[in-house]
Structure formats: structure tokens, C-alpha cells
Design brief:
This protein is mainly β. The chain has no helices and eleven strands.
């Protein structure tokens, strides 16, 4: 159940919510062919803030975070490696705040899902 047009948009059961849209192949692939899907919960004027549910299949790709992004991972496993060499392992229950400008690689080994907010 969801009401994305509410004065306070909401999704019940977001960890298993099945009404997601295909967002296509992940750009900047290094290995494999990851596909993303999700559901936008809210997008403010100028695209900030933005919140939603995002899911991605296994693969490895480059990424650069344009704005501060909070992620609460609720499914799967992945490793994020910063260009400075830091390793962040994620699995269900992990919360990460990627600061604007963070760059590196994501290596998804088991389909991940996160509840996110970009500000």
C-alpha cells in the first residue's frame, strides 16, 4: 500500500514493496550488467530533496555522488570502495551517509535495496 500523492507521501512495507519501475542499466559499468529499479517517493523543486526506494542487481560500476545521500540498506550485499581506498561493506540494516563529491566503485554481490534521501 502506498500513497505517493499524499500531503506526506508514503510507502508501507518499503523493504519488500513490489510496485517498482525499471530504471535501466547502471551507467559506468566496470564488470557485469547491473540493472536498477525503484520508486520515487518525493522530489522537491530543483530536485532537492529527493527520496525513494532503489534496488540494483549484481555488478560493479563507477559512481560519483553529486549531493549528500543517506542510504538505509534493507536487502542484499555490496562493497563500496572510495577512490582514496576506504572500503564500506553494506548489508541489510546498514546505514551510510555518502557526502557530496564521494567517488569510487560499487560492487554489488547480492541484489541490494535501499531507502534513500538526497539533499
Amino acid at each position: 500500500m502506498s500513497n505517493l500523492k499524499s500531503s506526506a507521501p508514503h510507502i508501507h512495507g518499503a523493504t519488500a514493496f513490489a510496485d517498482v519501475l525499471d530504471w535501466g542499466q547502471q551507467p559506468d559499468m566496470v564488470e557485469g550488467v547491473s540493472r536498477s529499479s525503484g520508486r520515487l517517493l518525493f522530489k522537491g523543486s530543483g530536485n532537492s530533496p529527493e527520496a525513494g526506494v532503489w534496488e540494483c542487481t549484481p555488478g560493479r560500476w563507477r559512481l560519483s555522488i553529486p549531493r549528500d545521500e543517506f542510504c538505509h540498506f534493507v536487502k542484499g550485499r555490496a562493497v563500496y570502495r572510495s577512490d582514496e581506498g576506504e572500503t564500506i561493506e553494506v548489508r541489510a540494516g546498514t546505514c551510510v551517509l555518502f557526502p557530496a563529491g564521494w567517488s569510487g566503485e560499487a560492487d554489488v554481490t547480492e541484489t541490494i535495496r535501499n531507502i534513500y534521501m538526497l539533499v
